[in-house]
Amino acid sequence: MTKDSIYETFMMLFEIVDKLSQKGLATSAKKNVALLESLSVRQQKTLFAVITMTKRNPAGINLKDLAARMNITVPAASVLVESMVQRGFLEREINPNDRRSVCIKISASGQQIFEVIRQETMVQVNKLALLINPEERAVFEKIIQRFYDELFQS
Description:
- It is built from seven helices and two strands, in the order αααααββαα.
- Helices cover about 70% and strands about 10% of the residues.
- It has a two-stranded antiparallel ribbon.
- Helix 1 (about 5-25) crosses helix 6 and helix 4 (about 65-70) packs across helix 5 (about 75-85).
- It has a single domain, classed as Orthogonal Bundle (Arc Repressor Mutant, subunit A).
- It is mainly α.
- Strand 1 and strand 2 (about 100-105) form a beta hairpin.
- It is globular, with a radius of gyration of 18 Å.
């Protein structure tokens, strides 16, 4: 496998993920799609980052970690978060372990919208999963986990 072919393979993977996202949105309720589409790309990225980061920290994440994940400054992250709090997608709470800081997490209404879209996307993912046998799936999952760990655990 050449460097060009691995690049092309990754580009196909990115296209697959984008198509899955589009299909999840296309079958979701129009109200939910309109809300998500009203967000800027950076706001959508923020929402997704908060959702994925709070899987490990259900109480919420701090602004500094969010800024680092998104490769932006803390003040820029603060402005983004505030705009999304005002729109009802995110919420800020006082950190119970450090009252000087806040925890950011997805709001109940934001979670509800995301859950509908996640379920629709899962239908598409499950269709694709049927195209590979259990051994291939295990290898695929292991490779993706390795990539994820390299990019997000270091």
